[in-house]
Amino acid sequence: MGEAVRSVETRFVTGSRIGALMTVAIGLAALAGWAFDLPRLTSVLPGLVTMKANAAVCFVLLGTALLLVHAAPSASRREAALAKSAVLLIVAFVAAAAALTLAQDLFGLDLGVDQLLFREAAGGAHTTNPGRMSPGTAVAFIVSGASITMLLFDRAFAPYVAQTLASAVGAQALVVLSGYFFDVPALYRVGEFSAMSLNTALALLVLALAILAARAGGGWMREFSRDTISSRFARWLGLAALAAMLALTAFHVHGVHFGWFDRGISQAVHAIAGMVTTLILLWFFVRTANRTELRAAHLGRVRVILGAVNNMIVRARDFRALAEEACRIATGPGGYRLAAIGLLDRKSMRIVPVASAGEPRDLADTVARRLTLAIGAGTREPAAGTVLSATPIAIADIASAADMPMREELARAGLRACAMVPLVAGGEVRGVLTAYAAELPVFDDEEIELLREVASDLAFALDYIEKEQRLNYLALYDALTGLANRTLFLDRLAQHLAGTAQAHGRLALLLLDVSRFRLVNAAIGRGAADSVLREIGARLERAHEPTRLARIAGDQFAAIVPRLAGERDAVRVYEHLAERCFGSPFAAGGQALTLDVRAGIATFPEDGSDPETLYKSAENALLEAKRRGARYAFHNPASDAAAADRLLLESRLRTALANRELRLHYQARVNVRTRKITGAEALMRWQGQDGALVSPAQFIPVLEETRLIHEAGAWAIAQAAADALRLAQDGLHGIRLAVNVSQVQLRERDFAQAAARAAGTRPGPGALELEITESAAMEDVEQTLGTLRELSELGFALAIDDFGTGYSSLAWLAKFPVQSVKIDRTFVGAMLHEELVARVVRTITDLAHGLGMTVVAEGVETEEQAARLAEIGCDEMQGFLVSRPLPYEDFAAFVRRLGAGS
Ligand code: C2E
Ligand code: CA
Ligand code: CA
C-alpha cells in the first residue's frame, strides 16, 4: 500500500516538473516570436491577443523557480539553501515586475520598463506590441509567485495555501480560455487595458497544474493522490475534463478563425464530447469498482474458510472428517468450485487423496485422485512442485497454461484458475491443499497468504490429532499386553455400571492376581517375565471379551462379568479363565512354568455403585483371598475400611456445615498486562476442629455424593455476596468475585432461582460470577443452556471453568451466554515446553476473543508463563505467581496494596 501511494505521488511530481518545463518553453517560444517576428508564437493565431514579452520572461522565471523547488530536496544541504534563495529572488523579481505593471495601469504612468526588451512599434495596436502585460496577468504572476513560495515551507498547512492560490490562478486561466471559446472578450479583457492572450492563459493553466502537482502528497490534493478507486477516478476525470476543454477550445478557435464552421457546430461538438467522455470514464470507474468489490468479497469468503477451519481444529478428532469439512466449506461458503486435500505418505512417497468437494463431482474426484501423480519421475502435475518445494503454486489462467495436465477438461468445466498450497507442520510438508476457481482474477498474494494460513491450520490439526491419538493410546492402553489400562478400564466399568443400573441388573468385577509372580520375575529375569505376561494377556483375550479386560498393574488383571444372575456366574467365569489361561504351562527361559491365579470378586450393586468403590471392594476381596489362602473370595462389606472412612467423613461434613466450619479463600485474578486486580475466585476450605485445612479436592466429591453440595454451594454464594458487599464498603471497587458451581448443583432444576436467593439483593447477583466447568456444561447442553440463560438474566456473570479439558465444541461455547473462559492450568503448565499446547491456547484465545469473551489463564506460576500469555493475547490470569488463595482479610489487604482495575 505504502509503495503504491508513493508511486502515485512520484507520478505527480514528474508531472509537475514537466509542467514547469512546459511553462518555460511557452515563455521562450513567445520571446522567440517577438525576436523573429513570428505571430504564431506570440498569439497562437495571427490577429489574436499576443503574449507580452515581459509576461514571457515571467513565465520563464517562474517555471525555473518551480524546477528549483523540485531540485532542492535531492540536493546537498548547501545546494538546497542556494536553490531556495534563488527561488525567493526570482519570485521577488517577478512580483516587482507585476506590481510595477499594476501601478502603471492604476496611475496611468508609463515608466518605459515594459519596453526594455523590445521597442514598441510606434502607434501600434495592443495586440501586436511586445509592451505591457495585462493587469489580469500581473495579478496571476503575483499569486503564482506566492504559491511557489509556499512550496518551500515544510509545514502541514503550507501545501493547502499553495494549492489554494494555484487553483485560483488555474481558475482565472480557465475563465480566460472560456472567454476565447465562447467568444466573450469581457472574460479575457479587463476594461481598457491589454487583454490576456490565449497562450498566456494556457501557460498559466500549465503552471497552476504544475504547482498543484508539486506537493500532491499534502494539502487537499492528497485526496487525488491516493491509491483508491475514487482517487484514481478523480484523477482521470480531472485530466479528461481539462484535456477536453483545451482540445475543444483549440478546435473552436481554429475552426471559427479559418471559417470552417460556425460557433453553433463547435458548441454542439462540445456538448457531445462532454457526454462521451463522461460515459467512458464512468465505464472505467464501474469496472475498477466492480473488480475491487468482487475481490474483497472473494477474500472475505476465503476468510470464512479460515475461520471455520480454525473453529473446527479445536474439536477435531479425526483428520479425514476435518479435511472433508474444510473442502465442503471451501466450495460452499468459500466460493471455490473445486477443492481437494491429499496427504503425503512418507513410506510410499505418494500423495493419498483424503477429501474433495465441488462440482462437477466426477471432476472433483479426478482432481483428488490425480494428487497421487504429484510425485514421480517427470510428472507435470503442479502439485508436485508444491510438495517438493513446500511453496504454494498458483496458475492464474488454466486455459493458457500449456503445460497444465487436464487443461481442456478443466477449462470445459469453467475452471479458470487454481492454487496448490502445501500443508506444512513442523517444517515438513505433510500434504497439499488445492483449490480451483471459476472467476478471474484470483490467487493473488493476499489470497495465497490466506490459503496458506488455512493449510497451516489443517497441518497443525493433523499434527495435533496424531499426537493426541498416540498419547491417548499410551494413556489408555497397557503397552506390554495391549489390553486396556486401569484408567480406560475404570471408564469402561463406569459405562457398564450405568447400563446395568438402568436395567436393574447385577455385575461382577474380578480382580485377578497371578500367584507367586514376583518370584518368577526374580527367577527368570525381567525380559522373560514380560513375555510371560504378554502370553497371559493373549490367552485372556482369547478366553474373554477383550473390551472387558485390563492389565491393572504388574501381575494384576481385571475382568468384568456383565449380566450376572448370581454369585455362581462370577465363580464360573473365574474358573473358566483360570482353566483356559493357567491350565497349561508357559514357556519361559527354556523352562515350562506353571502358574496359578487368584481372584477378588466384588458385585454391583452390593459392593459399590461407582467404579472406584467397586474396585476398592474387589481389592479388599483379593486381600481376603490371599489372607485365607483361597483361590477366590467375595467382598465382605464388614471389612470395607474405605466405606467406613467415607461414612465418617460424611458425618463430619454434616457437622461442619452445621458448625459453620467452611471458609472461603480468595485467589486474585489480574489483568495480564497491567497486573491490576480485576476479580477473585472463591475457593472453599474446611477448617476442622483440629484446625487443619482439608482440601476441597477431598471433600467436594463427598459433598456431591451426599447432595450436601446444594447446601454448601448456596452457602458459598451467600458468603461471596456478603464479602463482595464488604469489599465495596471497604472502598475496594471493581472486583468481581467468582464462585464455583458443581455439576450436581447445575443439574438441579431450579438452580438459577436458588442461586439468586442465596446471593440476595445486596450487592445483588451482578457483583458475582459463577464458574461452570466445561465438562459439567457439556453433559446436558440443552439444560445447561436454559440454566445459563436464566442465570444471565438474573444478572450473574458466567465463566466456563477448566476449559480445554472437556473436548467441547466452540460452536457450543458461542451459544452460551458466558463472559469469560478460564483456560485450564494443565495447558498453562505445558505451554512453554509444548509448542502444540501453546498453539491450542492461542487458538482458544483467538476464538474466545472472536466471541467477545475474556480469556483467563489459570495456574500461572512463573513470569515466563505470564510473558507468553501476554504475547498470546490472554486477558487475565490467576495463579501462585500473583497470589495463593487468601482469607478475606488478607485478600482485602492484598487488593489495597496492588490496586484494582480492569
Ligand atoms: P478450580 O476451580 O480449578 O480451582 C483452581 C484450583 O487451582 C484451586 O485449587 C487453586 O488453589 C489451585 N491453584 C490456583 N493457582 C494455582 C497455581 O498457580 N498452581 C497450582 N498448582 N494450583 C493453583 P483448590 O482450592 O484445591 O480447589 C480445587 C477444586 O475444588 C477447584 O478447582 C474447584 O473445582 C473445587 N472447588 C473449590 N471450591 C469450590 C466451591 O466453592 N464449590 C465447588 N463446587 N467446587 C469448589
Ligand atoms: Ca474454578
Ligand atoms: Ca479451574
Helix and strand arrangement:
Blueprint: H1 2-36, H2 39-43, H3 53-71, H4 77-107, H5 135-150, H6 157-181, H7 198-214, H8 229-257, H9 263-313, H10 319-331, E1 338-345, E2 350-358, H11 361-370, H12 382-389, E3 393-395, H13 407-412, E4 417-425, E5 428-437, H14 445-476, H15 486-502, E6 507-514, H16 517-524, H17 526-543, E7 549-553, E8 556-561, H18 567-582, E9 586-588, E10 591-593, E11 597-604, H19 611-628, E12 632-634, H20 641-658, E13 662-671, E14 677-687, E15 693-694, H21 696-705, H22 709-729, E16 736-741, H23 743-747, H24 751-759, E17 768-773, H25 774-779, H26 781-793, E18 797-803, H27 810-815, E19 820-823, H28 825-831, H29 835-850, E20 854-857, H30 863-872, E21 876-877, H31 888-898
Parallel strand pairs: 11-12, 14-16, 16-17, 17-18, 18-19, 19-20, 20-21
Antiparallel strand pairs: 1-2, 1-5, 3-4, 4-5, 6-8, 6-11, 7-8, 9-10, 13-14, 13-21, 14-15
Helix pairs in contact: 1-3, 1-7, 3-4, 3-5, 3-7, 4-5, 5-6, 5-7, 6-7, 6-8, 8-9, 9-10, 9-14, 16-17, 17-18, 22-24, 24-26, 28-29
The structure holds ligand C2E and calcium ion (2 copies).
Overall 3D geometry? elongated
Give me the oligomer status.
single chain
Bound compounds, please? ligand C2E, calcium ion
Low-confidence stretches: 122-126
E-strand count: 21
- So how many helices? 31
> The biggest beta sheet, please?
8 strands, mixed, barrel
Q: What percentage of residues falls in helices of 4 or more residues?
A: 55-70%
The share of residues in extended strands comes to: 5-15%
Order of strands in the sheet with most strands: 13-14-16-17-18-19-20-21
